[in-house]
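Task card 7
Instruction: Convert sequence to structure tokens.
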Amino acid sequence: MKATIERAKLLRCLSHVQSVVERRNTIPILSNVLIEAAADGRVRIMATDLDLQVVESLQAVTVDSPGAITVSAHLLFDIARKLPDGAQVSLETTDNRMAVKAGRSRFHLPTLPRDDFPTLVEGDLPTAFELPARVLAELIDRTRFAISTEETRYYLNGIFLHVSEDDAAGPLLRAAATDGHRLARYTLRRPDGAEGMPDVIVPRKAVAELRKLLEESLDGNVAIDLSPSKIRFTLGGEGGVVLTSKLIDGTFPDYSRVIPTGNDKLLKLDPKSFYEGVDRVATIATEKTRAVKMGVEADKVTLSVTSPDNGTAAEEVPASYDSAGLEIGFNANYLKDILGQIDGDSVELHLADPGAPTLIRQDGASAALYVLMPMRV
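Output:
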């Protein structure tokens, strides 16, 4: 194989695929990217960790001899990063080595044959639909912070996507994530082609990689193809980036049971001042006492933290509330995570009692909805 590629194109492409590659690998070939150069000047670059695969195509300046080879992903990426702007990078393979040349720089890297490189067999992906990239990015942002990191409950280690019928709103596509302490749900109208879609759980790493890729193509659409075991996201149309991932093989719990429907005490606040107040009083909280106590009254919320080691802190935040007063405690970090998702100038907390889950949302029309379990204080 011999191909010449503009440094900017090569770097951009490698930055997308190399982050899939784990730094430490027991299987040497998984540390490599597969580079395939075709006679028509197209170069495909692929990386995988056996569960997740990213492929991107680019147009080379020239392809003198077509071929395919694998080479260390992180090494090639670091070299491309350090080469000067505007450089033309020549990649040539001979005798189990790849020569990388640009200007006066010369590198000779070890390679492994392309036949050893594993690829994800997609099989049949019967469900196919499109979403605007901005909508998909928002869906991820509004839910992924609630993904569980507990490996024992592996079925919570991702975002759950499913379609449902709502009597009032019609057919919907919903995304949900929970770690047992909080729940995030995002709802949008079911896109054409998603009817009959199986319930799927997209793993945390695939979600993170997809979100990075979306950052560069927010104005386009994303084609989504899926089966009960695999999902594929195609960004940027023909010649763009294709991310394919295995899905989590498990059953997501029926989260709708924990969404409270009878919480009749409505508390309204400014999310920014509420967030800042929680953040300030939580300064003295320790690992043992992450709870912030909220004393809710007619026109204010008194936030307080008591720590046996660091003393006490309190702050009042103006609020709108016209039910009976109550005291309730929440994990400060979980509360901040949710408040950080609210863009508007008002947030609603639907409360019941100090031991019941609280419903949090911007307003009745917002696509995102959050449930937070209280803590004893």
